[in-house]
From TrEMBL:
Compositional bias segments (type: Basic and acidic residues): 31-40
Protein name, UniProt field: DUF642 domain-containing protein
Annotated compartments: Secreted, Cell wall
Glycoprotein as UniProt keyword: yes
Transmembrane spans: none
UniProt keyword list: Cell wall, Glycoprotein, Secreted, Signal
Species assigned in the record: Hordeum vulgare subsp. vulgare (Domesticated barley)
GO molecular function, one term: enzyme regulator activity
Originating gene: LOC123430462
Length: 380
């Protein structure tokens, strides 16, 4: 009996440890610092599919050490000393223990190593959640950008895959991956005080506590789960950046969104409205305090638009995060669904000559609509 109890306790402990992989934070060996079994390696090339602890690999995958030389290029790693590179048909896979019906966001860092067009496919199975993410544009001077992707859990155990779908002349050519993490999303609901869901942007992807670069959020439409709950990101290949208050100037709360792609990416949300309602859209515009200077000649501009009107907000920035412009757009709802769009209008780069893209920060958005008198009586 003691042996049975001990065995049961062991199973419970193991199950709890496995389930912990779905907690907010890095996945087990998400930084790839647990080194592979060298007997399943050929130089830096992974030859055994289970060589890297906690991960399964397929295709051409390399285990990279920071400072490793690749031709004329020195490969660097953003956190720790190791990363992986996905070459021809290269993929990494890890099982996730999740709650069916819950939403999750996956964050990972990626860096290009080749001059050609590079992209990644991120997916989970079972289910058909899968998307391609372009990593062609580099948004930081380090060459490493953090990206995020979100999904709805349809099963208690799902397999996450990050795959390089691009075929190059050199089979080793492909992006490096590091710092893979997960976060549970708790999408807020609209209220009478604010028809916008997650107008304060407090529900978003995981940002590592020590990461100073924020997280890039690629295109997400209404058919996908968004890493920024409630908000679609409309674009072809560009992104918005999710930023936190420890590293950026945030107008309110702990998180905001930096519009780093000019007019090529927009935040979009559709809400239920009563036709004829008098609506009041408000939001804050500031600078991220990251050296993004925008003066008289080229100030930051944020365009807010709905079917009932538009508003251009001008914000002049010294790059130090000082000052916030509060914007107001009043309009009359004409449909039962109203689309709110927030976008930048021009490109900006940091003043340190690094070429790092930056832009205005938007936060604390609210939409309040008062139905016309007959509708108010019907609503009672």
């Amino acid at each position: 009996m003691v042996v049975i109890k001990g065995a049961l306790l062991f199973l419970v402990v193991c199950a709890a440890a496995r389930a912990a992989s779905a907690g907010d934070g890095p996945l087990p060996n998400g930084h790839f610092e647990d080194t592979p079994d060298r007997s399943q390696m050929d130089g830096s090339v992974v030859t055994g599919e289970n060589a890297i602890p906690q991960w399964k690999t397929t295709g051409h995958v390399e285990y990279i050490e920071s400072g490793q030389k690749e031709g004329d290029m020195i490969l660097t790693v953003p956190e720790g000393s190791h990363a992986v590179r996905l070459g021809e048909d290269g993929s990494i896979h890890q099982q996730l223990y999740v709650t069916p019906g819950a939403q999750y966001s996956v964050t990972f860092s990626a860096a290009r190593t080749c001059a050609q067009y590079e992209k990644l496919t991120v997916s989970v199975v079972p289910g058909d959640a899968s998307d391609e993410i372009s990593i062609q544009t580099v948004y930081t001077s380090s060459g490493w950008d953090s990206y995020c992707w979100a999904f709805l859990a349809t099963d208690g155990v799902m397999t996450l895959t990050i795959h390089n779908p691009v075929h190059e002349d050199d089979p080793a050519c492909g992006p490096m991956i590091d710092s893979v993490a997960i976060k549970t999303l708790y999408p807020p609901q609209a209220t009478g005080d604010n028809l916008l869901r997650n107008g304060d942007f407090e529900q978003g992807p995981y940002i590592a506590p020590g990461s100073p670069f924020g997280v890039l959020v690629p295109q997400r439409d209404e058919t996908h789960i968004s890493p920024i709950s409630g908000w679609m990101i409309m674009s072809y290949t560009k992104v918005v950046k999710y930023v936190d208050s420890p590293h950026y100037a945030v107008p309110q709360g702990s998180y905001a969104v930096e519009l780093v792609a000019g007019g090529e990416a927009a935040l979009v949300q559709e809400v239920d409205t009563v036709p004829g309602s008098a609506c009041r859209l408000e939001f804050s515009v500031g600078d991220a305090g990251n050296g993004c200077v925008a003066g008289e000649e080229q100030p930051m501009r944020v365009q807010a638009s709905t079917a009932g009107g538009s508003k251009t907000v001008v914000h002049r920035s010294d790059g130090n995060g000082g000052g916030t412009t509060r914007a107001l757009l009043e309009f009359t709802a004409s449909e039962s669904r109203t689309k709110v769009v927030l976008s930048g209008s021009s490109y900006h780069t940091k003043s340190d000559s690094s070429g790092t893209r930056c832009g205005p920060v938007v936060d604390d958005a609210s939409l309040v609509c008062v139905p016309p008198a007959p509708a108010r009586r019907l609503l009672r």
